[in-house]
Amino acid sequence: MWWVLVACVIGGAAAGVVAPWWDNAVYYRIVVDSFRDDDGDGLGDLKGALKQISYVRALGADAVILSSLTAKSTDCSKPGTVDFSTIDQRYGNWDHLVGLVEKTKKLELKLVVTLPLQTVSTGSEWFVSSADRANGFEDRIIWKEGTAEEMPAPEEGIESWTWHETRKAYWASSSDEAILNLCSESLTATLSVSQCAWLKRGVSGVLLRLDFPRDQRCGEQLLRRLVADAMSCVRSAGLETP
């Protein structure tokens, strides 16, 4: 089951007040990888999106949803996100994102960025530290105790279990990426910091995408916490709301 939620940089509307912009906006989704390549490396980037964004407005869009920009592994054997708080350098940098934000504001377009929150690369610090049972990281990944000779029984939403020799346990995987433990308080706190980093760059909101392979209750609590923390981030940073 996929859950999608937009945590927007705006306060709740009281009864009788005009509905918030996201209720009736015409959205245009940009897959940055394939939208427009500015530097000629064959991969779309933020500078390319900046050059093409006026075209999107001309089509009648009110808001743009960017595909995930988070830093990803360059190791094909360990795919997935390695840092939720950083832009993948193949797309550009923070200055390029801020430039796009400023352009969309001039065009009266809302800009929303996507944060995929269901898995992480096995080459990431999160996974390596969790495997080492480092303080604050130990439960960020779904682990299952067992022995190398006896694999855990299949579970709904978990593609496979993989033995980790250092931890002496199995980790849950999906498409060779480690599945995050949505019940982890440490995970929740860190994701909150990550989304705040994006909001502080002036985007109108974040699109939180996560799968509930299990522990739906924890997933719903995580979403509620991230929405509340997004508002706190906006207020504490003194950001202008629409």
TrEMBL record:
Gene3D superfamilies: Glycosidases, Oligo-1,6-glucosidase, Domain 2
One BP annotation, GO: carbohydrate metabolic process
Top class in the EC scheme: hydrolase
Molecular function via GO: alpha-1,4-glucosidase activity
Segment forming the signal sequence: 1-15
Residue ranges constituting the Glycosyl hydrolase family 13 catalytic domain according to the UniProt record: 30-211
One Pfam match: Alpha-amylase
Family matches, as SUPFAM superfamilies: (Trans)glycosidases
Name of the protein in question: alpha-glucosidase
Native species: Trichoplusia ni
Taxonomy of the source species: Eukaryota, Metazoa, Ecdysozoa, Arthropoda, Hexapoda
